[in-house]
Amino acid sequence: MALRAVVPNNAETEGSTTYWYKSKAIAKHPSITYHYAASNDSYYYNSYTSAFLQADGQPVKLYTTPTNAIANSGKHVTLSSIFKKVAVRWDEKYDKQDVLYIRVNGKTYYVVDTADIQSSNSWKTGTTISSPYVPTSTSKIVLRRGDKVASATTWHKVIHYGKGTRTVASWHKNKGIWVKNK
């Protein structure tokens, strides 16, 4: 556990942060906490759940009315950023048509349920984690429930490319620390 103190650089800046550790072991191997999805792609009728456009998915058209979403035509906006967090819940009235409410920037849109929008933005396959973020961006990474970072040996930073993903950087684990590959 780190103890933190704010030490001002000068009167005009907000200051820098200095950390003191209770032990040398913690200083060498700090605990890194990743976020996990509340559930794996389960949405609720009465509350919104965070969700993301998948890096390996296609941009999604979000329609302004449920009937437009069912017809897959009409006025829409396109969700194309894999970094944008949205809020999702089921629509009871259109349950049989699998229509989802999606809140983006305070506005509600509709879409027929799609695998391109999921409750996590990173995933583990075998011993490899794929994410649009580097392994040290822990506040932005949301893994699928059940994925274990401790058993991963490789990390791929991926971007949307064609109809899948492209790895733009990779890391391997060395004594529990992520080291960037050259």
Strand order of the largest sheet: 9-8-7-4-10
Low-confidence stretches: 4-16
**Into which percent range does the helicity of residues fall?**
under 10%
CATH class of the largest domain: Mainly Beta
CATH architecture of the largest domain: Roll
Taken from the alpha-carbon principal axes, the silhouette is: elongated
Determine the strand fraction and express it as a percent band: 35-45%
Q: Kindly, what is the distance between the CA atoms of the first and last residues, rounded to a whole number of angstroms?
A: 32 Å
Explain what the structure shows.
The protein has 3 domains: 1-31, no CATH class; 49-118, SH3 type barrels; 121-180, no CATH class. It has 2 helices and 16 strands. It starts with a strand and ends with a strand. The strands form 5 sheets. The chain has a 5-stranded antiparallel β-sheet with strand order 9-8-7-4-10. The chain has a 5-stranded mixed β-sheet with strand order 11-12-14-15-16, with no helix packed on it. It has helices spanning 24-28, 66-71, and strands at residues 2-7, 16-21, 35-36, 49-53, 60-63, 76-79, 85-90, 99-104, 107-112, 117-118, 123-125, 128-131, 142-143, 154-161, 164-174, 177-180. Strand 8 (99-104) and strand 9 form a beta hairpin. It is 6% helix and 43% strand. With 182 residues, it is mainly beta.
